[in-house]
Write a structure and sequence with these properties.
Layout (H helix, E strand, L loop, with lengths): L17 H24 L2 H17 L1 H7 L2 H20 L19 H15 L3 H12 L4 H8 L3 H21 L4
Helix pairs in contact: 1-2, 1-4, 2-4, 6-8, 7-8
């Protein structure tokens, strides 16, 4: 599913100016980060704000980020951390309306949009910790070790949250009360 989210690793060609490199990164990673943010928060407007805040933080430390490795992984971690901070402040969740994912929905893919919306709604009903793990594991295709590293928790905790989150998602879909 990483390809569908645009999650192929983003490589920045060195040699340009700092601004040129950063703009290249923004263009290459924008769709991936926006879709990830929508899955994490369930609201396209808040998702855009999260991505903008992520890019602001990335720009401040761009030289180090670009030099030290994978800027997309760093951006994803910043995005998740910003979202966690938002959860801590608000403790409320918003469920998206059908078709809210940033994608053109024509008559030929309406069913896919409705299905994605159901997934976003179901994810919104999971507890915070379970949602983070499920999104990172399944929608961003990270390993348990990578998820543990990104969230600063143990692999055992990742496994526990994952198992409980998937079980709860099965219950939610079995209930069938998603719009």
């Amino acid at each position: 599913m990483v390809d569908e989210l645009g999650g192929a690793p983003v490589r920045v060609r060195p040699g340009g100016t700092r601004d040129q490199e950063f703009v290249e990164f923004v263009v290459a990673s924008g769709r991936y980060l926006l879709r990830t943010a929508v899955l994490l928060c369930g609201d396209p407007v808040r998702a855009e704000e999260l991505v903008q805040a992520t890019y602001e933080r990335m720009y401040r430390s761009w030289r180090r980020v670009a030099r030290d490795g994978d800027p997309q992984a760093y951006a994803r971690r910043v995005l998740v951390n910003l979202r966690v901070d938002g959860w801590r402040r608000t403790r409320r969740e918003v469920v998206v309306d059908p078709g809210a994912l940033p994608e053109q929905a024509g008559p030929d893919n309406t069913g896919a949009v409705v299905a994605r919306n159901a997934v976003v709604q179901a994810l919104a009903r999971l507890p915070l910790a379970q949602r983070r793990v499920v999104v990172l594991r399944h929608l961003l295709d990270l390993t348990e070790t990578e998820v543990a590293h990104e969230l600063g928790i143990s692999v055992g905790t990742v496994k526990s949250h994952h198992a409980r989150g998937i079980a709860r998602l099965r219950e939610i879909f079995a209930e069938g009360d998603l719009r």
